[in-house]
Each structure stands twice: as C-alpha cells, then as structure tokens.
Fold these 2 entries.
Entry 1:
Amino acid sequence: MAGNSFGQGFRLTTFGESHGAALGGVIDGCPAGIKLDVAAIQAELDRRKPGQSAIVTQRKEPDTVEFFSGIFEGITTGTPIGFAIRNTNQKSKDYSHIKDSYRPSHADYVYEQKYGLRDYRGGGRSSARETACRVVAGAIAKQFLSEVKFTAYVSAVGDISLSKPYQALDFSVIEKNPVRCPDPQKAEEMEAYIKKIRKQGDTVGGVIRCVIQNVPVGLGEPVFDKLHAELGKAMLSINAVKGFEYGSGFAGASMTGSQHNDHYNEDGTTKTNYSGGIQGGISNGMDIYFNVAFKPVATIMQAQETLNSKGEFVTMQGKGRHDPCVVPRAVPIVEAMAALVLADFTLLQRLNKHQI
Amino acid sequence: MAGNSFGQGFRLTTFGESHGAALGGVIDGCPAGIKLDVAAIQAELDRRKPGQSAIVTQRKEPDTVEFFSGIFEGITTGTPIGFAIRNTNQKSKDYSHIKDSYRPSHADYVYEQKYGLRDYRGGGRSSARETACRVVAGAIAKQFLSEVKFTAYVSAVGDISLSKPYQALDFSVIEKNPVRCPDPQKAEEMEAYIKKIRKQGDTVGGVIRCVIQNVPVGLGEPVFDKLHAELGKAMLSINAVKGFEYGSGFAGASMTGSQHNDHYNEDGTTKTNYSGGIQGGISNGMDIYFNVAFKPVATIMQAQETLNSKGEFVTMQGKGRHDPCVVPRAVPIVEAMAALVLADFTLLQRLNKHQI
Amino acid sequence: MAGNSFGQGFRLTTFGESHGAALGGVIDGCPAGIKLDVAAIQAELDRRKPGQSAIVTQRKEPDTVEFFSGIFEGITTGTPIGFAIRNTNQKSKDYSHIKDSYRPSHADYVYEQKYGLRDYRGGGRSSARETACRVVAGAIAKQFLSEVKFTAYVSAVGDISLSKPYQALDFSVIEKNPVRCPDPQKAEEMEAYIKKIRKQGDTVGGVIRCVIQNVPVGLGEPVFDKLHAELGKAMLSINAVKGFEYGSGFAGASMTGSQHNDHYNEDGTTKTNYSGGIQGGISNGMDIYFNVAFKPVATIMQAQETLNSKGEFVTMQGKGRHDPCVVPRAVPIVEAMAALVLADFTLLQRLNKHQI
Amino acid sequence: MAGNSFGQGFRLTTFGESHGAALGGVIDGCPAGIKLDVAAIQAELDRRKPGQSAIVTQRKEPDTVEFFSGIFEGITTGTPIGFAIRNTNQKSKDYSHIKDSYRPSHADYVYEQKYGLRDYRGGGRSSARETACRVVAGAIAKQFLSEVKFTAYVSAVGDISLSKPYQALDFSVIEKNPVRCPDPQKAEEMEAYIKKIRKQGDTVGGVIRCVIQNVPVGLGEPVFDKLHAELGKAMLSINAVKGFEYGSGFAGASMTGSQHNDHYNEDGTTKTNYSGGIQGGISNGMDIYFNVAFKPVATIMQAQETLNSKGEFVTMQGKGRHDPCVVPRAVPIVEAMAALVLADFTLLQRLNKHQI
C-alpha cells in the first residue's frame, strides 16, 4: 500500500534513500532452481551506473550489489532474495543549500506536504538512485525468463529521433555508443546535442523504445491487470517518465479499423502488428513494443528562482554532477521493469488452467 | 491476482461476461457515512449506455444497476457494496457465426490459448460491457470525493483534433453534443466524420483528455505506485486504449529543462504546469491532466479474412450493432477510472503521517 | 484491506448484510476447465441452512444461490464467478426493539463505534448469514480439489465430548444425525442436551474437529503464510470461534520432544502424526486435523440487562428463531473454509519451482 | 504470495536463512514522524537472543540490527525501513551430518519436496532465527503504538502451569527470571524442570499468555480479517506454535450463553470479559488476552532413527546448542507479532469513516 512493492507472484520490494546507508530490496516469489549468473546481474547494474561515459553524470558510485539470502550454491532456493547496494558517495554537504528550499519540478515540496518532513539531503526516496534496485531484480527476472529477449534503446533525444521501425535497426549497435541508440549516425547527432545542452547548463528529454521478443501466448490478465496496463504502470513508475504507448500507440487513434486490424497467418501469427503483441490485455506471441517518454532532468546548472519553506523566493543553482539527459542510463531500467512484468505474468499464468 | 480487482483502500472487484446473466461488482473499502445519490449513479451509467445517440451502437441495453448491500437508509455503512446489472439483450444467436473463428484484433484467439476454452457468445470478459461496473463504482467514488472535479472530453476523432488548451474550452458544452467535445464546431466535424466512417462499414479511433481539478496536495505513493502510474494503468486497462501521457507528455521529451521546469508562486502553486499536477508521483495541487489514445473498434462491417479454430482461413463480416467510434461513450469510463484512482489514494494518504 | 476477501490465488470476496436485499460474492482465480456440479453446491448450502432440524433455528430461508458469470456450458471459464443469495425472510420488524440497544456479547456497540453508524436491523455484516457465501465458494473449491477429502464433525457440545480419535470413528454416520456427530450414542446425548438448553432459553458452545485427507506434500508457504496459520485464520474468522489447535495442539505443549517427534517410514510418511500433517507450515502428506472451539450463541431467550445508545440500562430479551447451539450448522462452514485454504495453496504451489 | 510479508498498512517483509550472510527485512508503511528509540529496539532483540540465560541455547549470536533507510535524524520519514542482522556464528560444519537426512518433525523433507532443493546447512528459512526480524519490526510497532501495552509471559512449561488469572499476577516479575514467568515460585519450578529435561537430552513445550491493554475501540475488520483471526494467524506463524485461543477460548465451548455473555457497564466497558476484548472481530476497549501453545523443540540430544534422501533409515543425534524449551525466548516474539497486528489495524481503521 505504501507503494514500495511491485508484482504479485514475482514481487520486488525496495528500500533506501539516495543519501542513506544503503539501498536494497527483497525479491519474494522467485522460483527455486534458477542458476544465477551474478556477474550478469552486476553487468546490468554497470549499464545504469553513474560515470560510465562523458554524457552522463560524473558521480562515481560503484553500485556493487551484495546478496544476503535466497541463493544457495549459485541456485535460487525459492526463498526471498535480500540484497543491498551501499551508498559510498554521499556528499551530504553538496545538498545543504537545498535544505530549506524546494527545487523547481522536483518532489521536495510535495514530500514535505505529504509526510510532514523530508530527508533534505537529496531526492531521498524520489531519487532515481532507487532504480538500481529495480535493475538488480530485473536482471534476475531476465535469467528466469531466459527464452524471452528484452531490448530497449534510445529512439529520441530532444528533436532528434529515429524514423526507422525497429525491425530495420541493428540491435547489436546499441551498446556500442554512449547514447544507446542503434542508428550510429543518429547516435552521433544525439551525443553532440547532449554535450551542447550540458555546456549550456541545461538538460533535455528523450524517448526509449523497448521491444520484447519470443513471448509466449497467454500472458496478462484480462481486465484491470492487462499486460500493457502493467507495462504502462511499470514504465510510468520510472523517474521522469511522462508517457507510454504500445503498438500503434497515439498514432493508432487516427487510424480506421480496416487499416488497423491485424490479419492472421495460418499459424496464429499476424501479418501486421499494430496490436503490439497484445490483444485484450493478453500476449499473442508477436513482438511486444512500446515507447516511453522522459522529460528533461529538472536539475539544471542555471540560476533559477524558487521557493523556500518560509514562502520566500530564493535563487538556486544546481551543483554537483547531474545527468544532462536521462535516457542513456534509463535503457537498462526500462528493460528491468519490462522483465519484472513478464516474470510476474509468467508465474500468474500458471494459475489459470485446471490441471488434473 | 486474476486481475479483476482495482484499488487497495477503495477497491472494486468486477464480474460478468457480455452474454451471461449479469455483470456486477463489489466495492470494498468505501468509507461509512457517505450520503449516496443513486440517481446520479444511474445518470453516469446512462452516459455510457448503448443507443444514446446516432453515432454509437444502436443496441438497446437499459443498464440498470441494482444494489445489494453496503447502503442503509441512503448512507454507506462501510461494508462492501455489492451490485449487479442484468444483461437483458443477449442475442446469443448473433454470435454463432464466430463460435469457431477468431475475429481479427479481438481477444478470441488469446482467450482460447490462455484458458483452454472461451465463452464464444461474444467478447465475454473482454467485452467493453465490463466497464459499466467501473462507471457504477466511479460514480460512488465521485460522491466520496465531492470536492474534486473530474472532466473528460473527446479531443480527437481520427485526424480531427482540438488544438486549444483545456483552459480555453467551455466544459459546459461537453454534454451538449453526442461526441462529447467541448468545441462546438469541432464536435460537428467529428460527428459528420463518424457518420461517414460508419456508412463505410468502418470504425475510427480517437483521443480523450481528462482534467482533474481541486486535488489536494500529497496524493500518490512515491515509488511504484506513483499517482500518474496508477492513472496510466487505470486508463490502459480500459478496452481499446493504446497510449497514455500526462502533463507535457510525449511533447515534453523534446523540451529542455529550462523550458520545462515549473516555477513556484509564493503559495506553492506553479506558474506553468508542464508537470501535470504531479511531482515525483505525488499531487502538487495543480490541475492534473492527461490524454488517452483509443484505437479504432476492431469489429467492422466489412468482409475480412480470418482464422478458425482448425487453422483455416474463413471470411467474416461484423454483424449487429457496434460502435463506429468508441470515444464518445468512453468519456464517462475515463472519468470513472480517474475517480477510482483518486479515491484510493485519498484513503491511502490517511496512513502516511503519525497521529498522536 | 477492508477485510471482505479471503485467499490470494483462489480468492473469495463477499458482500451482503443479514437484512439487505441479498448476500453474495465473487470468486476470482478459480481455474478454467472445472466441470461444476451446481446441485452439489446447493447441497452444501442446504447443510448450512436454517430450519433443517429440530435443534437449529426454525427460520425458513431457502438460501438459493444464483450464479451470474464465470461458468459456461457447465464449465468454469477462468473468469470471476459472481453469485448472489437473496434474502427472502427479512422480518425487519423483529429487530426494531434493538435499534438503539447494544445486545450483550454482540457486535452492535463496536460497529457503531467503528463506523459511526450501523444497520440496526440485525447483525448486518456480523451476522453468521455471511457464511452462506463461504459455503458456496468452498463447495467450488472442493470440486476443484476433487482428490482431497474434507470431513468435519461435532466433537463436543457443552461438556459432552468425543474421546475417541478420529481414526476410530465412522464418518458415514456424521450426516445421519442432526448434531453431525460420528458417534451415534454421543450424538443422542448432545441432541438431548441442546433441546434441554433451548427449553431453558439458553444456548451452549461446542467443538468441531476437521480432518483433511489425501493432501499432496508441499502446500503452505514457510514463514507468515504457514498452512496451519492460514487454516487458523480461516477458522477464527468464522462467527463465534474462540480457539484453534492442530495436530497435538494445546496438549502438545506439555509433551517432551522425544514423545512428540514423528518418526519416518521409508516412504516419507510418519509412524505417528503429532505434527497434524504439517511441518514448518508445509503439508507433509499425512492427514491434517484440527479443532475449532465455538462459544455459545450470544442471543438467548432470557431477559438481560444491557445498554442503549444513550448510555442507559435497558432490559432486552431475544426474540425470534435463533440457534441454541451453532456447531451442527457450522460443520459445512468449517469444511468450506478448509477447502478455500487448500485451494489457494494448491494454486500458489504452482509458482514455487522453476519450469523449463 | 510467497508468504514473506505480514500486514497490509504496516507491512513487514523478511528475508534470510539461518546460515546465510544475513537476515533482514523491510517495514513498509510505518508512518512518518515517529521518534525512534533505537536502543529500545536492540533491547527487544536482546530479549530474544541466544545465550541470554542457562536455560536457553548457548549459541553466541549478538544479533545486532543495522538500519539502512527510512529514518532521518532519529525520526521515521514514512519511507520503507530496511534493516539487516548479520549472521556471525554460522558453523556450517555443524550441519554437514544432516545434509542428506531429514530430521524428524523438522521441515527438511517438506522443503525438499516443495522446492526441489534446500539449503541443508540448517533450518534455512524454517529456522526460528527468522523471528529476529519480527522482533525488530514489532519493537518499532510498539513505539508507534506508545499508548498500548503489550505483555506476554510464560504460563506453562510441560505440566507446570499458572492457575491465577493475569489480573492477579505482578507483570514486573516477568523479566526478573529466565523463564519469563510472573509467578516467582512457578518460575523456579519451571526453571528446574527445563534444566532436568535438558540433562536428559530432551526438550519440552509450553504456553505463552499475552495481554494487550489500553486498546482503542474499533480495531479489526469484521469478516475475514477479524482482529482475533489476524492475531491467531500471527501467532500460528511463529515456529513451533500448535494452538491459539482468546478470551474464554476452548473453555468457552462448554459454557452456556447465560454464563458467557459479557454485560455492559454504563461507559461501554463490560463487567466480565469472556469476549477477550473483541466482539465480532472488532476491539471493544477491554483487555485483549490470548494463549499460544508451543510444541517441544524437535531437535533433541538423543539418538533418533530417521530417513535420508535415498529412502534409507539412518541414526541421527542432535548436535550443537539448542533450546531445551522455546517459550522463554518466544515471549518477545509473541509481543512483537501482537504489536504488528495492532499497528496494522490501527492504520486500517483510519480508512473506515468519511471525513469531510
């Protein structure tokens, strides 16, 4: 209810503030008998970590995960997997200037209103640092779902966007550039643009596309917990996300039924895929694909007028090391949340048929 | 887990297929002491009902709600509110032609794969008829939240869309035309277009905008259950929805931080509202606004080739009385789901502070 | 959260007051493909219904269940099963004398304190009439678990109790006497005692023993949701229940480990069964057995002094037709709740192992 | 669903095996603004820890709790409280003799059947070591409910039991003897008996009584989540518990209604309290009291024949340092679980009334 858990069968609960002792979580419901590759989990964390390239925050946080339980001799035991990531780089002093002030378009003001107090040393629980825990759990979900392929990439930064459909792109390029864009030329343009924006002390938004392949038919629950509804919630729960669309998305709203309907092949696949791999909330075996829109990071390196807790206007300027554009580091987060949703529904689908 | 419940504190569970005896639901967690206006609940149902105008399905279903419990002398008692809506117009014969065939872009095929069998008489549980129950519960949620104002309207049908911001529109116009569009001229264009599309035996998609006003500060839980994440899930759980965006939405992805940041007034309100009334997943007291994209209805009155359960191609043509465009009737559903989300978070917010 | 649902995978939500229009419920998560015997469900309801013998309440309530959804051509579809039982015998006038008074050892006073108001026409939601819905759902759970055998019986009424272990009893006798006691001589004693107590305008408590046989190994979750913990909660949630013990129970507290340990046979069964079929919260394949203690019904046909809503003492005397002893009619309720617990854990156990 | 969480509003999730790196948990839903006394939390852990007296296990485990999050400047922030307790004394070698054998009346066999594998180094997740996490969370719940008084004590060890009602006992004596029994003479007898039993290499069971005082009226949800049903589940989820009874308990089953009914005083209190402070599942403001029966510890220091994983009989003898009687150390666990239940229902009760 307090909203720090995600999933029902495969369930992640996270804890931890950006400037506390540690972040971490508990994965409850991971089935027994999965051989875990811990290095692969750490590799996913490294895709998210600060300081990995010239276009992301230059903070140095190693983000090393320690597992406490639920794994024995390298195999999951079916019991809860507890883990923590120590905060090793909390420079609390960096944040003293914001103790009594509410940063524009940050959650400082609403936290104080909601709880009556807040951990003023940073974003606290609203910091995107929390997503490191999601990446850990998502990496385990990926290993559980070893047959399913999750691929996310940056499809837009500011006004620079990919026009090619995902089928025309070479996914092996994604991790070869710091933007995580599968079109090398666009990647260069995006990188140059991010650097320019950073030089201006500004930030910029972007879009991530995610493609899920080799999904079995039948995942998703038909009414409130439709597969795309949970994917949408999962994505919208990531910091800075403003929109989600799947399949034909917003463009589908201007189409006619005769254009939009996907016609069957004899094997149950469809000739087109405006449906985005989901019919009535249930996977149909075709590729699932969706877009996630991210707003520009609110912390900018320019002076801004804002409010303090006494109701006075004060001038504030972002300090420290922040991301000029969040999407390159958000790619593994999008994949992680997608994997958590699919892992959960994979388990839940085991409940739907009578077995004698 | 089977996904027929929505909400935690204010929780709706629904049941019922399009061609069974009845649909209905249980609202668990509605606080005691709310004076209910039952006529107002029925009026919301009437906004959703078939046959209400020339541009929606001409089926005649009165959709009368019967309450079983939880209300005593016109006041909620805090105990669960059970209700049902009888299906009075199930013409099962209308559907015999689809018994063994999978309608394109419908859920027939995935239901059969998921459950091993399906109620072939209609959409069963995947029918939008299920949303009548949401409208009942949403109407009660609105009465619980009597201070909050929920307004949804059609902002696009096919390529015809409103360009004006919601602040420039006269909401009192919405219910005065069958499209539920607050711009009278655009409403006429949309109506003419829908009629034309229907004459072609085709269907068309559209967009609904929803505005929630007078929301208290502090609603929403900060991590997975962000206010906009639950709103997104709520909307994506409505039949035919393909996308959700709030505040600046997808357009925000191409903006810079210096453009996008909302600056404070002295009273904690903001000068702009790109945030869409939500910061870090928590309401900030500004208007919440979002867009919901609907695909065109899959049932068209044109012959289509499709698959039957033997894996053969067959020709199928929609029969009966279907909506050429779903958005006019979806307006009250969007409002209902928004009200359910806000009711839930209003209750949950009572838990967050220590009271001595 | 408001506590009207039970179970996670196989989940029952109930609604309805004793004197409203109807009681009913929704079973969400019943797997698809179960052939339902509706007559068998009604037969379970008939075991619980008033007026069935000379030693229970003489109210006439047919308690006929109507199913709304989730069943198609006699088979469960995997979608929620909605149902209702009409209240046909609400003599609201019978209860006018208690409108402003709190019956001793009833929930009138706490309801009014909890909710600020109450449906004064009867017990409202605290009436044991609610358990009719549990019997419906339990009957479906039994059909889902067709291999498992649930047997409950009355093992004590007042001071008259069975001393024989359940293995020495003939379960086929249970339904052959109105007390539902498998020892014919004790049954006669109990029946005579109940009649005597009723003649005195008094009531008496009793104990029900339940035995669950042919349970697969592995049901139950190891920490908070231990199989016996959920069984205990299930039983304690039945009206008038004051205690629960399983296996050796309270007697086990005075034993030594060398006496109490159950030693294995070669096939994994055990020579003794002090454990009551459950080890560490997980079924071990041996018979599960437990006792449930019921207090005497609070409504007695004697004058009692009690309090009214003005804080004054008033004299009150039970009217109408009440049970002098609740245990004969509670036997099917105990079985129903046991079946709901086992159905739920049977589903949940599908989630615990990796399947490749 | 995997059963490692307890509570809805005030929710504890635990992780950790007896022989892994650490145990720990997350408390989600603890309200913001509670000043925490960390020393008092550690003091509760010390009441549970091994080695505290001559009649409990002589293992040396300091059981020091480390908090990771959710507390800022000594005050709860409303965000999840993550914590861990390192396992510092895992002598895995001690357990090699049980790697392939199933200890009688332990969960070894059922774990292996349930999950397909198990952490053979000890009880794993079925070890009572898990309850240390409950004590941490319960200590925080107690501080949240500073007005409510939780007192548990040992009321029986083997056949030695207290006959006095709790009102006649001096609770200040409880912590002054190693048995935690408020009757000094009985405490001595119990202590002597436990020492004798240990010398025999045997173990013995016992009973704990818990009294909860100063409870507000209105806690508990009326149907499935009755206050005593959740208390019962909470207690039955503690290792080795075989039975739970509240108020008149099993003895109430042989009483008549005219004896058992609690009559009101003018202020809404009652003259007697057979109800045990709960009516219809809802607290009535009177003392809540209940008994919890514990079986003898299964690990005995005598040779026992048991089964190995090949289906062969082997002789096994308990090694190491085990409790001859579990109840002295279980006293703080019972209190902790009671506090968790009350904390949860205290929060949930905030949802039940309309507030304008």
Entry 2:
Amino acid sequence: MLIVQKYGGTSVGDIERIRAVARKVKRVCDEGHQVVLVVSAMSGETDKLIGLAEELSNHIEGREMDLLLSSGERISAALMAMAISELGVKSMSFTGRQVGIVTNDAHTKARIEKVSANRLKKALAEGAVPVVTGFQGISVTGKDVTTFGRGGSDLTAVAIAASLKAALCEIYTDVDGVYTTDPNMVTEARKLDRVSYEEMLEFSSLGAKVLQSMAVEYAKKYNVPLVVRSSFSDAPGTLIVKEDEDMEKVVVSGVAYDKNQSKITIIGVPDRPGIASKLFGTVAAANIVVDMIVQNISHATGATDISFTVARTESKKAMKLADSLAKDLDAVGTDLREDISKVSIVGVGMKSHSGVAALMFETLAKHGVNIMMISTSEIKVSCVIEKKFTELAVRALHNAFGLEGKKKPAKKKTAKKKAKAKRG
Amino acid sequence: MLIVQKYGGTSVGDIERIRAVARKVKRVCDEGHQVVLVVSAMSGETDKLIGLAEELSNHIEGREMDLLLSSGERISAALMAMAISELGVKSMSFTGRQVGIVTNDAHTKARIEKVSANRLKKALAEGAVPVVTGFQGISVTGKDVTTFGRGGSDLTAVAIAASLKAALCEIYTDVDGVYTTDPNMVTEARKLDRVSYEEMLEFSSLGAKVLQSMAVEYAKKYNVPLVVRSSFSDAPGTLIVKEDEDMEKVVVSGVAYDKNQSKITIIGVPDRPGIASKLFGTVAAANIVVDMIVQNISHATGATDISFTVARTESKKAMKLADSLAKDLDAVGTDLREDISKVSIVGVGMKSHSGVAALMFETLAKHGVNIMMISTSEIKVSCVIEKKFTELAVRALHNAFGLEGKKKPAKKKTAKKKAKAKRG
C-alpha cells in the first residue's frame, strides 16, 4: 500500500523527534508499505524567518518572502532523509520543484496547477523513501519558488497523494484527531472516528486548526482518503472521507468556535438598491475577507442596519472603510464590537433533520446567551455571541447535541446538571 | 560600470549588517554603476546546519547535504533583496539554478560547467539589483542542488562576473585586503595593492584564508579583475590581476604559513621501482590530499625514507594506510609528527631572481630553525619546520625579504634588530 505521510513542525522540531519519525517510517516500510513523506519546517523556524523579514521591511515582495520561507522545509527534508538513510532505509529529499508541483504566480498564497510527481515515482520504483519539502512549489511562468501560506504542507501531502493515487494520506500532528469540539475547553470532547470532507471543511473554516482548508478541498476534489493522527502516539486518528449514509444519521458532528472575530455595523443606511453591493465590493477590493453578513430593514424608518464580521486582525482596516462608506451613503454612523465570538454546530445529518437550528437557539437562550447574528449553511449553523459566553455556549451545545458519545440529543440536560456531572 | 560584489558571512551576519550592505549598494548605484550581489549564508548558519546533520549521521549523502547547506544562502539572499528594496532600489533574489549556474554532479564539491546568467541580464536591463545565492548551482544530469565547498561563494561571484563580462569582481570580507603575511602574527605586515593570480593561488593554497583557490583559478582563466576588500571600511583593498612587469620586480610578495599539517614518514623502505607510485596511489585512492613529498635514499643501507605531509584532519586516516603499506613493503616502520608547520615565501619575481631560496634557508638557520622538508615551485619555496618556531620564522622571513614597505631585501637586518625596532 502506498501511503503519503505529512509531519508538522512540532513532529520534526528537533533531531530527536526527526529520529523518532524515521523509526516510525522504517516500521511502516518493514510492514511492506511504500511511504512518501512530506515535512514542514522545524517548529519556530518559519516564525523566526518572518521575524527577520519584518525587521527589514513592512512591505515585502511575495517573491522574496517565498524564497526566504521555503528554506525551512528544505532543511527539515534534508535532515529527515539523512535520518531515514541512517536506519538503512534508502531515502532522498525532494523540493517542490523537483517533484513537479507547479503553481500559479500568486506568491505566498499560490494555488497548485499541476503535479507531475515523475521523480517520486522513479524514487519509489528504486525502493527509496522520498522526503518532500512541504508548503512550496514553482511558479508556472516565473519558474520561481512559491509557497501556499500557513499550513500549506497539508496541501503538498494531499496533492502528492492525489497525483500518486496513494491509498491514504496521513497528516501527523500534535493532536490525535478531529474532536467534537476543542478538548481544551470541553473535557468530554470525543474524538471522531470518521467525518466527511464537507464537515471537515466547515470545521477548518470555523476556526479548528487541525487541517488547512485548501488541503481538505483538494482531498475532496480528488477523493483522497485523509487521516489526521498524532505523531506522538499510535492511536488511530480520524478518517476524513466522502459522506456516506452512516454519517447522515449523526445530526451534529461537532461544535466549533472562533474568538478572533470582530463585528462591524453601519447604522441607518438609507434603503436603496445596490448599497450592499457597493459596501462589500469596496471591502473585497481591500482584500478583507468578510465572514457573516446580516441586514435588517427597519420598517419604521425605511433605513437599514448592515452588520458583518471580519477577522480581528483586519478590523481596524475594515472600520476605516466602513466610516468612509457611511459618509458616502448618508448613513447614521458605524459601530465596532471586538468582544464577540462565533459558535457553530456542524453536521451532514442536518440536511435530513429538522429542528437543529431551533435546538441550538433554545439551548443558548436557556443559558442566557444573547444571539447577535445568525448564519446558516446546508451543514452548519453559526451564531455570533458575546465573547465572555463562548465556553458556556460551547459546553452547552456539546451537551445538548449529545456529543459525549451518545447519538441522541440530550435535550433535557441543563448546564447546571452537566457541571455537576463533571465535578463527580 | 558593471560590478559584481560578494559579501561573506560576517558581512551579512545580522539584520543591521545586511542594512549596512544595502546602503553601500545604493551608494554605488547612485554613482551610476550596475551592481550584482552574491551573498554567503549568515555567519554561523552553515556550521549550525552541519552540526545538525552530524548529529544524525556519520556518512551523509552529498546530495542531501547540499539541499541542507544551500538553505543558508537562500535566506541571506532573500533578506538582502528585501533590504535593498526597502531603500527604494529595485532588487530581486536569485538562486544558483535561476541564474543558470550548471555544475557537474560532484555533490558538496561541484565544479561549474556553464553559467548562462540570462535572468541576471534581464533583471539588470530592468534596472534591478540582482542578489544571487552564493556557493550553489544545479547539477547538469540530476537537476539537483549542488554546492562548491567552503568559500564557494567567491567562486559564484567570479563565475557570474566572467559570464556578465563585469568590469570588476569585488570580494567583501572581514579583512581589508591581501597582506604580505598574517597581520595578527606580524604587526609590520603590509597590505598589498596588487598581486598576480598566480601569487594569490599560492597564498590561498598555502593557508591564507582570504580567497578560495577555485575562485582565483576561475578568475585567472577568464581574466576577471578581482578585488579583496573590507565590508566594514572604504579602504581600497587588494587588486588581483594578470602578472605584469612591475610585479616581477618584487622578488617576494609575501610569507604564508599553515599550522594544520602533519608529517608522515615510512622508514627504511627497500629501494625498488614503483614504491612511490604504490604508496601515493593508495593514499590518493583514499581521497587524502598529499601536499609535500620528500624521498631520500640512504647510500649506506640501500633503503629509503619517504615523508609526506597531509592536512592534520586526515592524519589518522593516512597513518592507517601508511602502517599497512609499511608492512606490505617490508619497511622498518612509520612515524607521525603533528607538531609541524609549513612556512612559505611567494613571489612571481622569483622566476627571474636567483638566491631567493638560499636567503630563506640562511634566515631560518640564523634563527636556529631546523628545516625538515623543502618544496619549491616556480613562484614559491615552502619549508616544513617545528610548529613552535612558526611565528619566529614568519617574522624573520618577512623582515629578511624587506616586506615592511621596502622593495629590496634587507639582508643585513637580524631578528634581534627587528625586535628592537618593534619595541621602539
């Protein structure tokens, strides 16, 4: 069986850990499997390089940044190949260019256009374990090094697995799988054995740090079976695959939250056609990603309030735009709230079950949590709430949807009872 | 004027120094020149990477080592391009591959086969300052990263200067030029304004660390005018060019020494044809570089002693071979001396002056320094002596050949007088 394994920065954080991965790889080879490795930069390395660049300049060319940042993975790939060879298993390192990962020219956030993997096939045929630098490719026109952004090594692994038609793509990280919610926040959080690509995409985009969204999208597109598991244990991890009937029986798979959001409101906008288009066109042109949008027309005044959320790092930039737009649009004013968070429930079963959103709202109300914004998709419901209620809301929803191992929603349980159970 | 400038590890050792280089480059550009930069890894970086690799293995594949080591220059090249851009001068980083430095497949000690430099010409035409990663190219068959060995960034600079037909190739380092001898050992050492390629080659191979031999050979072959100068001052440095009549008037240009030598003797070898060939054939096959060789036939016994010197790091390996060869050859035994050093005088003027070697021997004898081995070439004389006499010998020779600024040998001056002069 051909397996692509990706190891993150903490898994290759020092020489001892690199040796541990090499031993693990040898075991898998000894069992008769073929392995291709993808490695991230040693933990801390990428941040160190970014720090050096930021010392030099505030407006760095993406092309130079990519040459700089791609160095980290080259170091860990070379060291990993050495460590595996030292165990008597033939191993060779390869860069993104050498394995034919061709991208567009969007430096620091490049998209993969083509993966040829010819040298990987050759190395595998020669019995070698190829070790590929994660996070990078080569641009189609410039022939320059490009990178995929934070977490981009996941994408490298999936793209190579797709190109080689690997049986499995294993993402080794410092957690042992995908959980029903953050186990640091909810001790009863349960590891999921299987989730669908769609659910994983929602989890990723809703703030769960386990997998990069682009990697999940790529895996979904090419139907690459993904496993997220710990490099520090032999626990089986979570399998991410195509949605099936069993999955649909589970109404809600998990609860996600994101504390890094800000809510901006433009108050009292005259209700004219084209206002939203103008507003969000301007925001998009400034490269600010808007998450949720809510618009409410006041029948009394004929004016409307438009609220939207952005990542908190973008809130100052977005507020500037909002202020100038408010003037242009003859709006009453603007409002910024940074003390918010977004809590979401995710599950493919929602498609065929009713009352899911209602149970979410009811649960939050029961705990005195006011809902500021609501947004829904086919397989998730998100609510913006006051940030101080985040933990309370996540625990209550996790409990209300019976995620501690029970399949049925435990509607009757209250937060008080649950807190008691925890103390017991 | 098109100038190629190379900056060593200490010149780009931290962000502040990188900024200082960027300012210097801007000044040169403002004067109307075109500049191509070549940079080494930040000081300490390459040693750090070697240390990591050595922790993992004792027998590292050159191919993996090259991917590892080439990372250092990529980091400094990217940072340098950012620093120059920050000053408002357009700048782009390039790797060895991107500027078309094609080498043979001899990893970690690759030789340049071809330099196309097309992308450099394009960047220059667009008004940009290209910053090239030193020390690395791409292999002609494997399309893998190759490196040139220690000091290899000098070679990159010279090769690019040759390819671009640059007016000048400046090597910026932490000393301000080539000296008549080591200024740390002899305070009267004088900076040379000009030396010939041949003399510089001797200096480099005799232990002077200022320039890599391969770089000087390449410069000589393509007649690239080289300048060695300090990156921390505006002093003019030393120009290295083709030998001319003026140079030949100077009998001795400098005194070099090398304390990292060992002397191995095979004692009492029966005097038969083919012995030396067998001995040095075996040593060469083990990839040990032999420097000096002396063979003396004893007319009394009909047996011979063969002595040779190797770098001290190789002495254990070489002694093993010598011991087994002594057995094979029915020799009496072997002897290893590590307490030796090699002192040399160099000068193109020797070709047309007699008595140079004689003055050297006389000077050493006058100071009670016993000569253990002698080796001569057209433009140098080397003597192996006891290591403890190194400083004494170098100072005496520097004085005897009048290198403190006078052009004529000061034959009458004794070490005693010189010592007095120094105190005065």
